[in-house]
# Entry
Amino acid sequence: MDQQLPRPVTLLRDALLPDGRRVDVSVSAGTVTDVAPARTRTAPADAVLDLDGRLLLTAPAEPHAHLDKALSFDRIQPPLGDLGSAIEAWRDHATTMTVEDIADRARTQALAMLAAGTTAVRSHVDVLSGHGEASLHEATRGARALVQVRRELAGLVDIELVALAGPHVPDEHVEAVLDLGVDLVGGAPHLADDPDADVDRLLAVAARRGLGVDLHADENLDGPVTLDRYARTVRDWPRDRQYSAGHCVRLGTLSPARLDEVIADLVAADLGVIALPITNLYLQGWQHPVATPRGIAPLRALIDAGVRVAAGADNVRDPFNPVGRSDAFETASLLVSAGHLTPDEAWTLVTDGARSVMGLPVAGVAVGARADLVAVAATSLVDAVANAPAERTVIANGRVVAVTEVRRTVAAPLPATPLPAGLVS
# Structure
């Protein structure tokens, strides 16, 4: 594509939809205004994107990222291991970071996600207080970096920020990070000496500030459960903000009766759950060398009960996950193989489900929906999830913001030759 990006478009011509239809999609002011049979609509040539039968999907949203940690694995060289060892490696490295270093990695990561089709990201950002000994200036390094990147990428990627406050972070530092424009209150109460008390502390901060909440919750295969206390506390809170929890792998090891109790609380509070398969599959189960249990939220039980469920990639190439492709198709594929979802369900969790828990407007190929879309060289949604085609065109708010084109050359097979007579049956 020769045109400079971003490029506004008013017509996406000849798109293939997952239901098999070939359509033209009209767009105005970033919103889908018409969906008609293919090649029946016209627009000025410079405002047309001819998809020529490529599969057009709702663009993914990433509901749980760590842009401040991303792409730090090679620099840190941490030992491979569980959650505790990852936290220790990150904490040691964090004392050496600058705002510029964090911003450079975060920007690179956000743009990689955009190129893969993700048009909205919710990123947690550590309140860098260590065990409370850091100054306010030191504690806010990550937040200052991510607020800067959010400003630079405005109009390309919608970025929400969550203040990730560990159990030892003083409220003063949390408040300072929120004062910078961070959007939600977060933390990891299951890591505290008194998990319930830390839930109460973080929710009190959110109540004072009138903010939504997105907690790391119960990121372990045994131990305390904090989700039900969280859900019961926010059940009657204002609905003009979002309440959600990431990880939630402890739910997958509860007895059926106990799981039903927690799920009932989640439904009553309309509290969203964010599954994070790649990082939890990596971090959980190291202490069980035989019949190793796998860490993933119980997706089928949550979906069937009516819980709002999303899924994300979480960490990418940092001490908490040394791999990851910054690609929602990778997350969707893992939801199929590790979470036993259908490809349709998996894609819904990284698109509609993610946008729901993030409080974003509906997107997709429907009149009135936001024109956040990704076109891929695939014949069906199953084909797309299975193969994650590299060739993509990304549309955010009605503008083409990323194009990846691929050229492939494969050697031809040898000409067929008859088998010797003795080998023919």
Observations:
- The chain has a mean pLDDT of 95.
- The radius of gyration is 23 Å.
- The first helix runs from residue 73 to 76.
- The domain at 61-357 is CATH 3.20.20.140 (TIM Barrel).
